[in-house]
Amino acid sequence: MSNENNYENAAGDLERREFGYQEQREQEQQEQTFRPTSLGKASGYDGGADDEPALLPGYIEIWAENFPSEGRFYANGARFFIRAASVKEIRHFSTINEQDPFSVDEALNEIVKSCLMIRFPGRQASFKDLREEDRIHIILTIRDLTFSQGENRLILNVPCNECNHENEVEIKNNSFERNELKDTILKYYDEDARLFKVQTKSSGEIVITPPSIGVMMEVTKYIRKTQEEGKKLDASFVKTLPYMITDWRGLNEQKN
What we know:
Layout: H1 4-31, E1 60-62, E2 79-82, H2 87-93, H3 101-115, E3 116-119, H4 132-146, E4 155-159, E5 166-170, H5 183-186, E6 189-190, E7 195-199, E8 205-208, H6 213-228, H7 235-240
């Protein structure tokens, strides 16, 4: 992550750009001389309860096929929309304690919560339904949309394995190399259930799915509380548990 000064400078540039846009909009409104006094009458509207709600201003659609998960673990017909982060949200993010992994995790979730909208056909969706493996992709996409003029670049110095010379690499979605699932794993994927089903000889059918943000939030709470109370943490259990929970709804510490 960039340091606080970089975020402050970028936020300042973004704030000036937003102010200029708002000022232009106000001027255009003042120059208008004609304002209709009536919206007229609506007739012949056959809309019903299944009509899709209007998209909020500022949101654009992105496609799950481009996610690291390739959209495999979301409901059929799921749609994803993002907006640019506001100046207030950027300034808040710049104040996080980068040495505290819990603080960083919470800040990343807040960005997703504020700037991502998910729609599932026929049922309500939440930012918590986003798969954990897709979170960094979403955050970097929001970042690109927010800093569309390259105000703040994320640079990582990577040493060369042969000469130890440090090369600058910009952190973007296309900077990451994806691991494609092999046929030996894909054969367990259930297209209808949108998860993996593994039939075992001794334990019956085991259901496995990449954890969602909602599941990881509850698991993180459990880890944090266990550490604060000085109790011993079962690392193997914690690593396995998130992949066995199919939905974060109704999940709490007692059910863990």
